[in-house]
Write a structure and sequence with these properties.
The protein is mainly β. The chain is built from four helices and eleven strands. The longest helix is centred in the N-terminal third of the chain and has 13 residues.
Length: about 230
């Protein structure tokens, strides 16, 4: 996270006269199939597993290639999911899942790839979909932590890839709103000691490989603020 902040500081310092900063908020949902399977197996498939939906908040910086409509918005974001796990005897433990992410969003404007638009779309006469529609590819890294019953905290780092679709809508020379929907796949996320949390009392337990891919769905809005006209 420290290196990410230094990266953003460098970009801001070098381009303070011609920059765009984006603020984003997304409705977010996650699914971790392997953890679900492990929990069902340990608890005899009688548990109830619920993750709440959450909002993801992010901040990103915009820059682009000079000749082609490929634009970049490296972003740092945060989301907090609460989970509730119920044992067959109705005992339960609660967990907070915190996701800190860095994504290098790459936007490809498929209908205007050879265009010279410096965007947003306010100054163009073309249909908004031609200038504003893009597909997004998002490699990145995630730092996750898990707090069970307000006690032990475990942490992990994992890699991720995402794909999405968005549309830039220019409202003025300095303000753009962009609806985006995207799907992210987080690979081999390690919930350290998950197997121990699934054992009550002092029972013996078998060590498991507490890994799961996490599928994350996001749908929301990005707000772009620019302070120099290109």
């Amino acid at each position: 996270m420290k290196n990410t902040l230094l990266f953003f500081s460098f970009l801001f310092t070098c381009n303070i006269a011609s920059s765009q900063i984006n603020l984003s908020t997304f409705y977010s949902k996650i699914n971790a199939t392997d953890w679900q399977t492990q929990i069902d197996s340990k608890l005899g498939n009688q548990n109830n597993l619920n993750y709440n939906k959450a909002f993801t908040f992010g901040i990103s910086y915009w820059f682009r290639l000079p000749q082609k409509r490929i634009e970049f918005t490296p972003e740092i974001s945060y989301a907090d999911f609460e989970g509730e796990y119920v044992y067959p005897n109705d005992n339960q433990f609660n967990v907070d899942i915190h996701l800190h992410q860095f994504n290098f969003h790459t936007n490809i404007y498929i209908l205007d790839f050879a265009g010279d638009c410096h965007c947003p779309t306010f100054g163009k006469q073309d249909p908004i979909f031609k200038k504003g529609l893009f597909i997004q590819v998002s490699p990145g890294v995630m730092f996750s932590s898990y707090n069970v019953n307000n006690g032990d905290v475990s942490k992990a780092m994992s890699f991720q890839i995402g794909a999405g679709l968005g549309l830039d809508i220019g409202l003025s020379e300095n303000f753009t709103i962009t609806p985006i929907v995207r799907l992210k796949q987080h690979f081999n996320v390690n919930w350290l000691n998950l197997d121990q949390y699934l054992v009550e009392g002092n029972e013996d337990f078998e060590d498991h490989d507490n890994l799961s891919n996490i599928l994350q769905l996001e749908a929301g809005l990005q707000f772009g603020i620019r302070w120099r006209k290109y």
